[in-house]
Write a structure and sequence with these properties.
The chain has two helices and 18 strands. It is mainly beta. The chain has one domain (43-315): Glycoside hydrolase family 11/12, catalytic domain (Jelly Rolls). The strands form two sheets. Strands 1, 2, 3, 6, 7, 10, 15, 17 and 18 form a nine-stranded antiparallel beta sheet that branches. Strand 13 and strand 14 (228-234) form a beta hairpin. The longest helix has 12 residues, at 254-265.
Amino acid sequence: MTLIAGYAALLLLAASSRAVDADVPPVPEPKTVGSPQAQALFLTGGDFEEAAPFDTGLVARRCVNLSPWGERGWGVGAATFGRDEPNHALEGLRLRVFDDGGNRVAGIFAKESRGLRIGYARFVQGDAWGGTLCPGNAAVGWRRPEPLGVAGRRLALTIDVKNEQVWKFSNRLLRGGVGGTSQVMVAFNVWLSSPRLAKRAVLDLAVVHDCNWGPGDCGPNTDEGAKAFHYIVHVAKDGKDSAKGRWVRWLVDLQRHIEGAARRFGWDRGVVESLAITQVDFLVEVMDGQGSVLFDNVRLLDMPEGSRLEEGGTPLP
């Protein structure tokens, strides 16, 4: 696969902080067959109402690892991947929790335009790796719940998302089928481990996935790396991204995607029954692009037995 390392000119946009145009109503339970009751697990503080306001401001070229609310709350961070990047500094970022229209929400902005570097900015609970990528500041100080076994559960994720901006700095060159170098993803990362697996697994469950790299389809593409199984999927049935400029309530059938990863990687039932969730992120991941998103009402739910979940996004009034 041939990738273009760069272009003669890149259009650079500054992050914009736009106000929420409508109050977010209380979160209803997901549509199910049977009892509407569901138990919230693993994550806490997903409505951000108890979190003190916080704002990094616009930060340039830094690896960030912060625990603004201590061991009982979310962590925030930003970094780039790659062994040849000793500082793992993301080109641009902003992470914040703020009041808007009487409702407290969280926001993420991430930017990376330096060739094929891949980076992210995130909110996180749990600890899959025992540390972070930031040199000299790798310790985890945020909330780290006990691993959550998936066996015997019917798991789902819910979140309200406002997709503010997705921008690709490169263009796909149609002549000759040569691709660009850009990708922007807004997603849940759910990290799993098992004593029966030699490496970790991560589910990238995207509500936004926009890319143009490579000569063909650039994703989402599942793969198996040296250190992790990497299952990635767009959770919208029609593959459409979360609508720009408005709030959308997403329901993600996590149990279905755990089963999908098992089929893709050939895990037997013993592996599936031994899996445990060790970390959940909500992030913006970028390569030669930038993205900005607001979000609220994040929950990991154990649904009643026999529940049938209707995965997808529903625009809010």
